[in-house]
TrEMBL record:
Sites where the protein binds 5-aminolevulinate 1: R208, R220
Keyword Nucleus: no
E.C. numbers: 4.2.1.24
InterPro entries assigned to the protein according to its UniProt record, in alphabetical order: ALAD (IPR001731), ALAD_AS (IPR030656), Aldolase_TIM (IPR013785)
GO cellular component, one term: cytosol
Self-association and partners: Homooctamer.
One of the protein's GO biological processes: protoporphyrinogen IX biosynthetic process
Name this polypeptide is given: Delta-aminolevulinic acid dehydratase
Length: 326
C-alpha cells in the first residue's frame, strides 16, 4: 500500500475525529424560535411541529426557566395573534398590549442575561396574510411596506429587543430600518439581523400552521427568492451588507448549504446565521419516526453541514434537545 493511500490512521479515535472539524457546535451558537400567542395562559401544542407549542406570556417563566438553566442564551420571538383584528397594514404587530411587546418586556425582566431577538414581519398581522402592504391589484407596495416594517422594528427595539430580524423580503427595508434605529437612538442598542437570502420554500408549512400566516391568495414568489436563484441570493446578501445589516441569514438551511458558503465568502466579517426551518425540523422528526435514522445523530449531522458551510449562528427548533445533548 502506498503511503499516500492511507488516511484512516488520522481519524481512528473519537477525539481525532473531532479534530477534523474546523468548528464544533456550542450552546452560544443556538437561537431558539418561540411562538407567543395572545391568550396569556396558553400552552397549545402545534401538531405539525413536534414538541413545540404556542405560549402565553404567563407561561414563559415555566417554559424557558429550565432551558436557561441548561444554557439557553438566545431566543427569537414570533407573535401569533389569535383574537385580534387584522388589517391591511398589520396594525396588531406592534400593539403595546400585543404578545410580542409584552413578551419582550417579560423576558427582559425574568431573564436579564437572555438575548432577545424578534422576527419582524407583517404576515401574521395582515388580513391578506402577505408580508407587506399591497396595491389594489394585490402586488406589493414597496414604500409603505418598508415604512411600516421599520416602524414595527423600532417599536420592538423600544420595548427592549436586543435584535430585530426582518423576514419580509421587501426591497430596501434594511436601509430603512437601520436609518430609523439610528435616528431614534437605537443605533448602538439594537442589532439588525437580515433574513437576506430567504427562499420561497415548501419548508415553511408547519410554521404557517403555527403562526396562522399563510397568504389568503397567491403566494410569496414575488418577494421570497426562487430556489434555483443562486446569483440573486448573492446579490441580496451583498445588498444587505451595504444597507447596514449586522448579521446576515440564509433560510432554509439544509437545501441551501451552497448559499451559506457563498454568504461566508461574500461577508466574511459578519456573523452568519442560518435558519433550520419548521419543515426541515418536521422532516428530520418524520424520518426518525419512520426508522430511517436516530433523531440525535441526524440532528447533529444536519448542523455539522451548516457549520461546515460557514454558519456561526443557527436558529433551530432542536435547541432544547441540543442543550440536553451537548
Ligand atoms: C414570516 C416568517 C416565516 C418563517 C419565518 N418568518 C414564514 C414565511 O415566510 O412564510 C418561516 C420559519 C419556519 O418555517 O420555521 N415571514
Ligand atoms: Zn412574513
Amino acid at each position: 500500500m502506498d503511503i499516500s493511500s492511507i488516511l484512516q490512521g488520522g481519524y481512528q479515535h473519537p477525539l481525532s475525529r473531532q479534530w477534523q472539524s474546523k468548528r464544533q457546535l456550542t450552546k452560544s451558537m443556538l437561537m431558539y424560535p418561540i411562538f407567543i400567542t395572545d391568550d396569556p395562559d396558553a400552552s397549545q401544542l402545534i401538531p405539525t411541529l413536534p414538541g413545540q407549542s404556542r405560549w402565553g406570556v404567563n407561561k414563559l417563566e415555566g417554559f424557558l426557566g429550565p432551558l436557561v438553566a441548561k444554557g439557553l442564551q438566545s431566543v427569537i420571538l414570533f407573535g401569533v395573534p389569535m383574537s385580534c383584528e387584522k388589517d391591511f397594514r398589520g396594525t396588531p404587530a406592534d400593539d403595546e398590549n400585543g404578545p410580542v411587546i409584552l413578551a419582550i418586556k417579560k423576558l427582559r425582566s425574568l431573564f436579564p442575561d437572555l438575548y432577545i431577538a424578534c422576527d419582524v414581519c407583517l404576515c401574521e398581522y395582515t388580513d391578506h396574510g402577505h408580508c407587506g402592504v399591497l396595491h389594489k391589484d394585490g402586488t406589493i407596495n414597496t414604500e409603505p411596506s418598508v415604512e411600516r416594517i421599520a416602524e414595527v422594528a423600532l417599536n420592538y427595539a423600544r420595548a427592549g429587543a436586543h435584535c430585530v430580524a426582518p423576514s419580509d423580503m421587501m426591497d430596501g427595508r434594511i436601509k430603512y430600518i437601520k436609518r430609523s434605529l439610528i435616528d431614534n437612538g437605537f443605533g448602538n442598542k439594537c442589532t439588525l439581523m437580515s433574513y437576506s437570502a430567504k427562499f420561497a420554500s415548501s419548508l415553511y408549512g408547519p410554521f404557517r400552521d403555527a403562526a396562522g400566516s399563510a397568504p389568503s391568495f397567491g403566494n410569496r414568489k414575488c418577494y421570497q427568492l426562487p430556489p434555483a436563484g443562486r446569483g440573486l441570493a448573492r446579490r441580496a446578501l451583498q445588498r444587505d451588507v451595504v444597507e447596514g445589516a449586522d448579521i446576515l441569514m440564509v433560510k432554509p438551511a439544509m437545501p441551501y448549504l451552497d448559499i451559506i458558503a457563498d454568504a461566508a465568502q461574500i461577508a466574511p466579517d459578519h456573523p452568519l446565521a442560518c435558519y433550520q426551518v419548521s419543515g426541515e425540523f418536521a422532516m428530520i422528526h418524520a424520518g426518525a419516526k419512520a426508522g430511517v435514522y436516530s433523531l440525535r445523530d441526524m440532528a447533529f449531522e444536519s448542523v455539522d453541514g451548516m457549520l461546515r458551510a460557514g454558519a456561526t449562528l443557527i436558529l433551530t427548533y432542536f435547541t432544547p434537545d441540543f442543550l440536553e445533548w451537548l
